Amino acid sequence: MMGYLIRKNWWIIGLVLLIAVIYFINENQLQEQQNEMRSEGFYSGEEINSPEAEASYVQIVVDNLITITDNVANISQYDFNNIPKDAKEFKLWGEPIKSELLNSNFDLAFTEIDTRYSSNFTTPSKFHSVNERLINTLNETKNIEQALYTAIDNYNINDIPELAKRLQEQGERLRNLSNKIISIANQK
Asked: Alpha-carbon distance 117 to 128, whole Å?
């Protein structure tokens, strides 16, 4: 009877075994990654000041800040002072900006910085003060970017120039923070 059930349902048994093997392989890989990160001192609660941790922080944060400031610069190239009043022209004018806002890598870059250095990883101690300002500035920038998208989507012509100006200012703040991080990294 058991042999009959095995022969009849061999593909189900094989599928279950395959899923179990994949699960255990993934668990082992995850465990290895966590052990490696622990050995490098990247988990929260551990004070990290090694040159490798600092270099990793600088590379990830600065690379992502460059992505964000490039996105802000791309959006800033649009003319926000001469917004068409006609609904049809406004829609034609606003669609590429909305597309730029939707397709920007801002959320990905922001999440990379925020998650990595707010919860799972510890910021190297010499970057603590700038990291807090960075996270706050990123949150403000994200909110302004979302408000600009909503204003364009809802045809709020009066709000758009101010939001665009504020977004440019945030881009400049992020560029300055990036330079500050590099200057802190270069201090011995």
From this structure: 10
Q: What is the pLDDT of residues 2-44, one digit of tens each?
A: 566 556 666 677 767 778 778 778 777 767 766 665 555 444 4
pTM of the model: 0.68
Nearest Cα residue to 131 out of 147, 114, 107, 146: 114
Query: Taking CA 68 as the corner, what is the angle to CA 64 and CA 71, rounded to the nearest 5 degrees?
Result: 140
Distance CA(111)–CA(118), nearest Å, equals 10
pLDDT in tens, 132-151: 888 889 889 889 999 999 99
Nearest-angstrom CA–CA distance, 169 and 76: 10
Q: Give burial (CB, 10 Å; 0-12/13-18/19+) of 13.
A: exposed
Distance, in Å, from the CA atom of 64 to the CA atom of 119, rounded to the nearest integer, reads: 17
Beta bridge partners of 121: 43
Bin 41: left if φ > 0, else alpha if -120 < ψ < 50, else beta.
Answer: left
Residue 80: DSSP 8-state: S
The alpha-helical segments, DSSP class H, found in the chain are 2-8, 10-40, 51-76, 87-103, 106-115, 128-153, 160-186
Per-residue pLDDT tens digits for 103-141: 777 777 777 777 777 655 677 888 888 888 888 898 898
Taking a C-beta distance cutoff of 8 angstroms, is the pair 44, 93 a contact?
Answer: no
